[in-house]
Amino acid sequence: MTTGRIIRVLSGFYTVNDGHRDIVCKARGKFRKDAFKPLAGDLCDFSYDGANDGYIMAVHPRKNQLTRPPVANVDQALILVSAKEPDFSSLLLDRFLALVESHQIIPVIIITKMDLIESDSPLYETIQAYQNCGYQVITTSQDDFSNNEEIKALFKDKITVITGQSGVGKSSLLNRLTPELQLKTGVISNVLGRGKHTTRHVELFYLNDGWVADTPGFSSLDIELTERELAVSYHDFAKLSQNCKFRGCLHVSEPDCAVKEAVAAGEIPSWRYEHYLMFLNEIKNRKGKY
């Protein structure tokens, strides 16, 4: 029995990498009987005789699992947002952060096209605010490759999802980091998982000593969380909530709420808290429709 990582799922076949080679496997019938589907990113035990297809015998416990895209054991998400074209949106970024952190995935914020804003842009204060909240923020420009090594180092020994709104420069960034990928900037890219094939399979490809999901990231930005899950989805909210008077505090009208106190003290930006309230209202409205 050998342990490997599932890196491709396509039409009932699973490509498993054992650290040295890729082996095409089938899944035991037991998985179908139990209605369990192995996913790209899964660690698994498989048997292989060197001649025929291998067989996945067992899947190791997952630390997390995404539905859209269907991938497991994601360590981090690189969330790409642009300074301009399209304009930076802290509301959209906070939505991405809630979705990512609710799955115990570490987010890294990468802001592209910084060369398109003025030196006195209020975006610099916003960046500092996210850093003060404990987020890693990396800024890039279209013609400045000075932080390539910093970004490359992020991938080492991790499974990474790259996500962000259309047009922020995802394929341009990957072109810059690994030119041999030969991505077509501004065109639907197989490596980023956009196009018709996305409904058929998800694939991990090896990049800078780590695995990157061949997917555009979250295909839906609906806040499909419970109210309590949202309340602790941001790591800074989760840490502060330990000091709230009430267990299960939603940080709205409860007394002695550590999150509201942090907002009042300026430790959490008021606009970030307002975004949280908007998302919470979305969840409440969705519940009322059922």
Task: Describe what you observe in this structure.
The protein has 3 domains: 2-61, Beta Barrel (OB fold (Dihydrolipoamide Acetyltransferase, E2P)); 71-214, Rossmann fold (3-Layer(aba) Sandwich); 227-288, Probable gtpase engc, domain 3 (Ribonucleotide Reductase Protein R1, domain 1, Orthogonal Bundle). A 5-stranded mixed beta barrel has the order 1-2-3-5-4. The chain has a two-stranded antiparallel ribbon with strand order 6-7. By secondary structure, it is α/β, with parallel strands linked by helices. The longest helix is centred in the C-terminal third of the chain and has 19 residues, at 270-288. The radius of gyration is 21 Å and the shape is globular. The protein has helices at 29-33, 90-101, 123-132, 148-152, 170-177, 227-231, 235-241, 258-264, 270-288, and strands spanning 2-10, 13-17, 22-27, 43-47, 54-59, 65-66, 71-72, 76-82, 106-112, 136-139, 159-164, 201-207, 210-214. It is built from 9 helices and 13 strands. Helix 2 crosses helix 9 (270-288). Helix content is 27%, strand content 24%. A hairpin with a 4-residue loop joins strand 6 (65-66) and strand 7.
